């Protein structure tokens, strides 16, 4: 039985992970959980899975969670109150919990970086759903992976698809996982993109885009931030940078293709021109389960793919004018150093401002580009963790300054 810690247990990745644990009670058990502010759901998760340790990001909520769990123990004498931690340091304790075999990193954004590093330093294997860890701090994370022997198992559907396609190739034996070693025999990665909420909109129509429009994904059920990233296609640009670090492949060998049906989750081309693809319904449970069960595969009762029902699989090249965030990501990745951290942080903050309706949808790429350009003179080519954290903070403040001044797309 594999012991699992889940970071961000009340979010989309976390809740689906716990559903899988419940479906396979003889294979997995939960030993540690962390969450943000959703105390009702968190209390229910703790009651159901009875972990050894828990952590809340918001330390002010510790008295309330303690009170809730005390009440649970009074109602159920078999319930044992777990050890309780709070704040960023508390989440790092949960991430590096001694009895855990695998850590699922479901915390969104750069907030997941330090807990992920704590898990790596503790020698834990990770189901990596927090792509920002590699995007913002790839040059910091890779040496730590080599030092600790931890393995990053990609939980994103696209990188899981690539990972699955690579099983049985020379990469599986030689490059292992997330060491930045070039992948033998791998010529090209094709990242598929649904096209997001605006895939059927013209570039001109984006002037009318609202928060409600941008957070309504046609295929996937995801959190608001990542759904907006899908609408701008920044999520695909970020995945390009992540793929570069995960599989040791050059940016010129990574392509993005629009695939509206979201059935093919990504493809690889090998040196002999053979192209391998991983297919499945658009459901995050499958890549999460593969992370938890790897190198095994478990039989599931889930709905099986019916290609006749799908009917057709179509593809087209992405419109770079409609989706400028893609090129911003490629440029940041090729620049390297601290630039991907700036890209990631400025995107997170710009999306946050958009979700608060302080800026327009079209302001997002413009603001990101301005912040990245401002950073060029201070670029650090071989950053430390402190450098990454400093530019992350600087980027967010710079976006806030731009928004406060009202320097939106009409004025930048």
Low-confidence stretches: none
What's the tally of helices?
A: 17
Rg value? 21 Å
Q: Mean pLDDT, as a whole number?
A: 92
H-E order: EHEHEHEHEHEHEHHEHHHEEEHHHHHH
In total, the number of strands is 11
Distance from N terminus to C terminus (CA atoms, Å) equals: 56 Å
Strand order of the largest sheet: 4-3-2-1-5-6-7
Outline type: globular
Query: How is the biggest beta sheet arranged?
Result: 7 strands, parallel
Structural class: alpha/beta
What is the helix content?
A: 40-55%
Q: Beta-strand percentage? A: 5-15%
Number of domains: 3
Write up this protein.
With 412 residues, the protein is α/β, with parallel strands linked by helices. The protein folds into three domains: 2-150, NAD(P)-binding Rossmann-like Domain (Rossmann fold); 155-334, no CATH class; 336-412, Rna Polymerase Sigma Factor, Chain: A (Orthogonal Bundle). 46% of the residues lie in helices and 14% in strands. The chain contains 17 helices and eleven strands. The protein has helices at 12-23, 39-49, 62-75, 87-95, 113-121, 132-148, 157-166, 170-174, 211-214, 224-232, 234-247, 285-293, 307-310, 324-335, 339-355, 363-375, 385-405; strands at residues 2-7, 28-35, 53-56, 83-86, 102-105, 125-128, 152-154, 186-193, 254-258, 264-270, 275-279. The strands form two sheets. The chain has a seven-stranded parallel sheet with strand order 4-3-2-1-5-6-7, with helices on both faces. Strands 9-8-10-11 form a four-stranded mixed sheet, covered by helices on one side. α2 crosses α3 and α5 packs parallel to α6. It is globular, with a radius of gyration of 21 Å. The termini are far apart.
């Amino acid at each position: 039985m594999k012991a699992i810690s889940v970071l961000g247990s009340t979010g989309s990745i976390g809740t689906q992970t716990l559903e899988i644990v419940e479906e396979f009670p003889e294979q997995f058990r939960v030993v540690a959980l962390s969450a943000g502010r959703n105390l009702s759901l968190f209390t229910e998760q703790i009651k159901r899975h009875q972990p050894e340790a828990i952590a809340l990001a918001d330390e002010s909520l510790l008295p309330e969670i303690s009170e809730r769990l005390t009440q649970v123990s009074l109602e159920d004498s078999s319930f044992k109150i777990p050890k309780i931690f709070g704040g960023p340091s508390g989440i790092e304790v949960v991430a590096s919990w001694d009895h855990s075999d695998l850590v699922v990193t479901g915390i969104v954004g750069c907030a997941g970086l330090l807990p992920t590093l704590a898990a790596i330093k503790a020698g834990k294997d990770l189901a990596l759903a927090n792509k920002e860890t590699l995007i913002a701090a790839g040059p910091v994370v890779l040496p730590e992976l080599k030092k600790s022997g931890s393995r990053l198992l990609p939980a994103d559907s696209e990188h899981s698809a690539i990972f699955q396609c690579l099983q049985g190739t020379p990469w599986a034996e030689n490059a292992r996982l997330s060491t930045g070693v070039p992948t033998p025999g791998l010529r090209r990665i094709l990242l598929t993109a649904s096209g997001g909420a605006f895939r059927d909109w013209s570039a001109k129509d984006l002037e009318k885009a609202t928060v409600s429009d941008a957070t309504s994904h046609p295929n996937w059920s995801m959190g608001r931030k990542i759904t907006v990233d899908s609408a701008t296609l920044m999520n695909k640009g970020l995945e390009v940078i992540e793929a570069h670090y995960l599989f040791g492949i050059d940016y010129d060998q990574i392509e993005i293709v629009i695939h509206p049906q979201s059935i093919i989750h990504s493809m690889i081309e090998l040196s002999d021109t053979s192209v391998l693809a991983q297919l499945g319904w658009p459901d995050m449970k499958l890549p999460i389960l593969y992370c938890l069960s790897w190198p095994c595969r478990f039989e599931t009762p889930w709905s099986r793919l019916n290609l006749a029902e799908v009917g057709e699989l179509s593809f087209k090249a992405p419109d770079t004018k409609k989706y400028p965030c893609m090129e911003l990501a490629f440029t940041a990745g090729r620049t390297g150093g601290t630039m991907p951290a700036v890209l990631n942080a400025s995107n997170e903050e710009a999306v946050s401002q958009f979700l608060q309706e302080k800026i327009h949808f079209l302001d997002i790429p413009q603001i990101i580009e301005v912040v990245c350009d401002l950073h060029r003179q201070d670029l650090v080519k071989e950053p430390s963790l402190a450098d990454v954290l400093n530019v992350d903070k600087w980027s967010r403040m710079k976006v806030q300054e731009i928004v406060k001044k009202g320097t939106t797309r009409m004025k930048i």
